[in-house]
Write a structure and sequence with these properties.
By secondary structure, the chain is of the alpha/beta class. The chain has 24 helices and 24 strands. A hairpin with a 5-residue loop joins strand 8 and strand 9.
């Protein structure tokens, strides 16, 4: 680019992963043996890296490429942008490689499609005068069609219809170069960023002629406000005084932004498009340009169209050039996820942020994306995927909630680091790595205190996911593996007596006991401090003790009577999809008896567990072993497995929360095939922090025990209050 070099490269990363494997139990007394074997293995995963260098340090950038990225097989390096011409000879000489120049616009659009598809909080609207400058948008499952307005030296307006179909539909010679060139002539300021700095301090009304200067107030007949610009630089024709550099820069910025905004609106209207993304050197994350473009679009579209910006706008060309070079590997066939541990955050670049003086880095300095093992798609049962928002509370917006949860995660950090180190007693550097994890996550939390929008919308889910990413970065793949192994073993020993007790009850009494068991199981959550304190200090705390902790009915959210009525009066459900939460008592004594009852009613069951570990949540591989053991004790489960009426699947997630718009493709296929008509989501992370308001096309149950006193208070209850939400979609 004109001032920055953006580098994209692919690497393989060695990660430690926790594996569980069933012991061969033939002829062995397994009463006192562990339930399964845990091993830590090396796994190689693919990662995309994006790094930004200033062009003044192009030699440093090339040294980095030469030292780390070039091997004997590398013959060609893909490049795009103005610098691909300017630095071609230097690159070829220094690296001994042929520079293969790619078309700028093709790369830009390929990069744009990639980030829109893979980064949930990529797109934002800019609101200068609200508490949070950046208002992130929900990614629509269908990203096409859209308008891309690229403001470099001039303006290019491109209509993008599919992955490979786009056309240049218009543009203007009045763009960023015009602002820079005219600005330099007017203010004698040669640097673009300094010019913007001047504009941010200026008052354009000193230079511009307003409607009220012409008509003495608003022009009512045409509905024009008195403060509207009637003529850019209009006052300079009549005034004898000198104008300040700041005021002229501000007037110029408004003039060019308004021109671009009107042009973009007209093209959007002409082509019937409602999504306009702005990018290019002129934008580059600068609040002052984002604000003027936003105002202009809002004015000319009468509020019907929103100006949208991209978090990683500066990297689009580099990503596109990389994708062109990697076409034989088809990166688009995979899903990718942002690695929060290795990515730097979106900074506020507002020049008027005082006295905090935040770092002015524009957008990202580094971005890392990990290739996910399986493609992720929407749950087919979402009522409207385009309006689905997983998270219940937006901490970017809610300052009080943000302060509480950031403090909560800070206070829990020492305990998490201690647990991580203790999970690897045979490792000589476990303590050192745990301290590095603690430091890294602490720094992330401090960044989020200052810039809550750094990684998109800040939520409890993003805080939990960032912690998991940091743990993985320092090779703590599953700090709770031994805890889960032990709790699964203990719970299995109680399974038969729990089933016998349930089977001895009358039908109605049994339904309530099953729900109470499901809720009691949900108490066993090592992610909740109130519970982990009890589990640490009272090892004998068990299923019956958990039941006694539960709130008596009526519950905080209580539609149990409607659920019971549905079971009594309605036909059996065809198929139930259950998202399981914790290992041990939760899945074995809470979920499985409930599954067994559904199966007995003639309902097929899909049991979905996390693909990878998070806290003490049950993983798919653990659920296979647990189910095998239960089947050996229980004929109902055994025959359901044999007849494929009970199916175990993975969610594609490694989070304590649940995003129904990013689920394993295999799970989505199964949901459709089996005509699923009931979804059960259990646990605080999956049913309260996320999906509390999720609207589905079918019946749903959301169950959880609130194990956090602040959250309970927020929802109008006390700790261990119960949420039992039975929802039927409107016909």
């Amino acid at each position: 680019g004109g001032s920055l070099t953006k580098l994209a490269y692919y690497s393989t990363v060695q990660h430690k992963v926790a594996r569980v494997r069933s012991f061969d139990c033939s002829g062995k007394d397994i009463e006192n043996e562990p339930l399964y074997e845990i091993s830590v293995q090396e796994e190689i995963t693919a990662r995309l890296h994006f790094i930004k260098f200033e062009n003044t340090y192009i030699e440093t950038c090339l040294d980095f490429i030469k030292d780390h990225l070039v091997n004997t097989e590398t013959k060609v390096i893909k490049a795009t942008g103005g610098g691909a011409y300017k630095f071609k000879d230097l690159i070829e000489k220094k690296l001994g490689l042929k520079v293969d120049k790619e078309d700028v616009m093709t790369c830009l659009i390929k990069g744009c499609n990639f980030v829109l598809r893979n980064i949930p909080h990529e797109v934002f609207a800019y609101q200068k005068d609200s508490d949070t400058e950046f208002r992130f948008q929900t990614n629509h499952p269908n990203i096409f069609p859209y308008l891309l307005v690229n403001i470099g030296s001039g303006v290019s307006i491109v209509k993008v219809e599919t992955e490979d179909k786009f056309e240049w539909i218009g543009g203007s010679s009045i763009g960023g170069g015009t602002f820079w060139g005219l600005g330099a002539l007017l203010t004698k300021t040669k640097k673009f960023d300094e010019l913007l700095q001047l504009a941010s301090k200026g008052q354009h009304t000193n230079v511009d002629m307003l409607v009220k200067d012409v008509y003495g107030g608003a022009y009512q007949t045409l509905g024009l406000s008195g403060n509207l610009i009637a003529s850019s630089f209009g006052k300079s024709t009549t005034a004898d005084k000198e104008f300040s550099k700041e005021d002229m820069a501000k007037s110029l910025l408004h003039m060019i932004s308004n021109d671009i905004g009107q042009l973009a609106c007209l093209y959007a209207k002409l082509h019937n498009l409602d999504k306009i993304y702005f990018g290019g050197f002129f934008i580059r994350g600068h609040p002052v340009t984002m604000r003027t473009i936003t105002y202009s679009i809002n004015f000319f579209s009468k509020g019907e169209v929103q100006a949208l910006f991209l978090r990683h706008e500066g990297y689009l060309g580099a990503i596109g050039a990389f994708l062109k070079g990697a076409e034989q590997d088809n990166p688009n066939q995979y899903s990718w996820g942002e690695n929060y541990a290795g990515s730097s955050g979106l900074m506020s670049t507002s020049p008027d942020v005082y006295p905090m003086q935040r770092t002015r880095s524009g957008t990202f300095d580094m971005l890392e994306m990990d290739r996910l093992e399986r493609p992720l798609v929407n749950l087919p049962l979402l009522k409207d995927p385009s309006t689905y928002i997983p998270d219940t509370v937006d901490l970017t917006d809610d300052a009080m909630a943000r302060k509480y949860w950031l403090t909560c995660f800070e206070e829990a950090l020492d305990g998490v680091a201690k647990r991580a180190a203790a999970s690897q007693p045979d490792s000589i550097d476990a303590l050192e790595r745990a301290e590095k994890f603690r430091q890294k996550y602490w720094n992330k939390l401090q960044t989020l205190r200052q810039q809550p929008f750094a990684y998109g919308t800040l939520t409890v889910r993003s805080l939990l996911d960032t912690r998991e990413h940091c743990l993985n970065e320092f090779n703590f793949p599953d700090p709770y593996s031994k805890v889960k192994q032990k709790e699964n073993g203990i719970a299995l020993k109680c399974f038969q007596s729990v089933i016998e007790s349930l089977d001895s009850l009358g039908w109605e009494e049994r339904q309530f006991a099953l729900v109470k068991g499901l809720l009691a199981g949900n108490v066993f959550d090592w992610g909740a401090k109130a519970v982990s304190d009890v589990l640490e200090s009272e090892p004998q705390f068990g299923f019956e003790e958990a039941k006694s902790k539960l709130q008596e009915r009526p519950w905080l959210e209580d539609s149990y009577s409607q659920w019971l009525e549905r079971l009594k009066e309605g036909p059996p459900h065809k198929c139930a999809l259950i998202f399981a939460d914790n290992s041990g008592i939760d899945i074995i004594l809470g979920v499985f008896p409930f599954v067994r009852e559904l199966l007995s009613r003639g309902t097929e069951v899909i049991l979905a567990c996390n693909s990878g570990p998070a806290l003490n949540d049950v993983t798919y591989s653990e659920s296979l072993i647990v189910t095998e053991r239960i089947a050996a004790m229980d004929p109902v489960i055994q025959s359901a497995l044999r007849e494929e009426k009970l199916l175990l699947v993975q969610t594609g997630s490694s989070s304590p929360c649940l995003d129904l718009s990013r689920l394993d493709k295999g799970l989505a296929v199964l949901v459709r095939e089996r005509k699923t008509d009931l979804v059960i989501i259990e646990g605080m992370g999956r049913a309260i922090h996320t999906n509390y308001y999720a609207a589905l096309k079918c019946e749903s149950l959301k169950l959880a025990v609130i194990k956090n006193s602040w959250l309970a208070d927020r929802l109008g209850g006390k700790i261990f209050s119960v949420i039992f939400k039975y929802e039927v979609p409107c016909k």
